[in-house]
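Help wanted!
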Amino acid sequence: MAQHRTTLKDIAEKLGITVTSVSKALKDYPDISAETKKAVKKLAKKLNYQPDSRAIAMKRNKSNIIGVIIPEIVHYFFSNVIQGIMSYCDQKGYQALIALSNNQKSLEKKQVNLMFNTRVDGVIASLANESAKAKHFKILKEYNIPLVLFDKIDERFECNKVKIDDRFGAFLATEHLINKGCKRLAHIRGPQHPLNAKERYNGFCDALKKHNLELDPTLIKICEKVTLSEGYDFAKELLAMDALPDGIFTVTDQVGVGVIKAAQEMDINIPKQLKVVGFSDSQIAQVVKPSLSTIHQPGYEIGETAARLLIEEIETREADSESPVGFKQITLDTYLIEREST
Amino acid sequence: MAQHRTTLKDIAEKLGITVTSVSKALKDYPDISAETKKAVKKLAKKLNYQPDSRAIAMKRNKSNIIGVIIPEIVHYFFSNVIQGIMSYCDQKGYQALIALSNNQKSLEKKQVNLMFNTRVDGVIASLANESAKAKHFKILKEYNIPLVLFDKIDERFECNKVKIDDRFGAFLATEHLINKGCKRLAHIRGPQHPLNAKERYNGFCDALKKHNLELDPTLIKICEKVTLSEGYDFAKELLAMDALPDGIFTVTDQVGVGVIKAAQEMDINIPKQLKVVGFSDSQIAQVVKPSLSTIHQPGYEIGETAARLLIEEIETREADSESPVGFKQITLDTYLIEREST
DNA sequence: AACGATAACGTAATCGTTTTCGTAGGTGTA
DNA sequence: TACACCTACGAAAACGATTACGTTATCGTT
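Answered by r_m:
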């Protein structure tokens, strides 16, 4: 019942020639006669011969598979990145092996090792929230396996990187609130470790400083999971204070939507009494009512760029394994999208 | 600079024994002396030996990689499914190679072939909108490669399947509209081919029939891309008719949100003048204002179940390649979530 | 006739691992 | 002494494909 997968051997035996000739015939080597080529190709088609990529991978020491490690996948930004990665890979003849870290450092480490064992040609990753450093990616470096970090990166780690200017984006968002008349600004920020959470916080501070506004530590809240409900809870806290904030910049749109929900429940009008800006430009930001102003974060382009850098590095090393690679950090443009929440 | 990946050969040479013994020592074969084992293991650890999964895959004829082919990934439902698949795979020691069909049949076919060549152990797929039949998956069947279809399935194709009862879900949604007093019901349905779009349409009809309501063909609209903006456009058409519909059931939440946007622009009150029910229970359904009633579609569980079925089939065939496999169709529970839009 | 060129194919090594089947040397027993 | 038996290892085939290098046979040239 179970059909046998045709190999070169099968073809060779039926034709009474050797595996070598079959291989050469299929690849149009000049030292194979036209007749033999014809016969081989015909039989190959008939038996539906398809080369075994694993065997080729062993021989060439190249799998044409890249690994992707991300914190989560049910996430507008990350799924966009993946889409970008995949469409570029498809074009270039690579496949994508995807793994999740669930934002846990230990799991992330395990996934890195798995990728290493699977002998992927390279890895694209965004660090787990628990991972301040990319130290556990070092094994890739040691064995010359290209790595591209995006979004949640470790600046000190020597490799290609793709990101947006989070600090500038946050600055734009905050200054927008100020320009709209906000005086008392709050920020619901991301976790301690991820660099982009820090950068967004810094951008927030930059804007305050530029406009001579004081930074009130009680108006800074730190998310752990960066969810809608965290945004909701922190907003409830912030909006129960004696001196209410009149503008909130949130680390993501998810959190921003949580803020909007909380404000609505407390009958605080957005944007009149409170203005909100999120970050990422995810779909919920346009769908929520009032729609949420946000900072655009081009997920698809980030993915595409990361894949391009990775494949370039892979193929450069392939051509000359000893040429020292110059690492780039590509920063993609970002901008403010103004909506009803401001 | 570039470090060399340790192989059995390296260890064997340094220890003056053969590859055979090294392999056996690492796997605790009884015919290797305790001393040798100790020495081998020590050196293996020191040199960070990790077996090459490709070589093992060749030998065992098993890659421990499964293929996943889905129409798109920037999609709440599909990304949830992937999450479910991956977490199950992780537990069972499998990795996931993911590919997108972009809802195109030709690309889907290409991806199936790629999966075949990569020698994945099995495939999980949801059909592209363009694919009425799963005929192009036949090659997997011919070579005894397990396949599990989910969500957008081909009922006639013999393989394991995981889905929800779309017809019943649609019936629930529609009856809910009727129970809430709607008399003139519209349905914005999915494309022609996907079975679940047909089933949802059928469920819509079932409810009308049960409650002796007439089916007005002018109130049925057919999406191509199933996007928010399609929902918006169709809603504008429907709400410009002489006899307005008072209830709309949409094939997805995306489309439902489009309807809500259109109604709001036209100053039609939801739920007073118009009630809307979506399908999928995606995040935007809770975020939109008014929040959208919907039918729950358990993406994570569907993914988990699909992975479980697939891996069970893989391992059954592994144990006994000739045992005829009985295919299951698992239907997961679904239910209505009532929100502000009704 | 002798040599070289060329065409067309095969040999064998290789990638890294697994596993079956030896086999050499030693010990124990009748 | 002869045989069985055990211990601890190695040889070799196998998975499927690639490729540097050999090896024939045939023909042309001088």
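OP: Thanks! One thing I noticed: Residues 50 and 109 of chain A are 35 Å apart (CA to CA).
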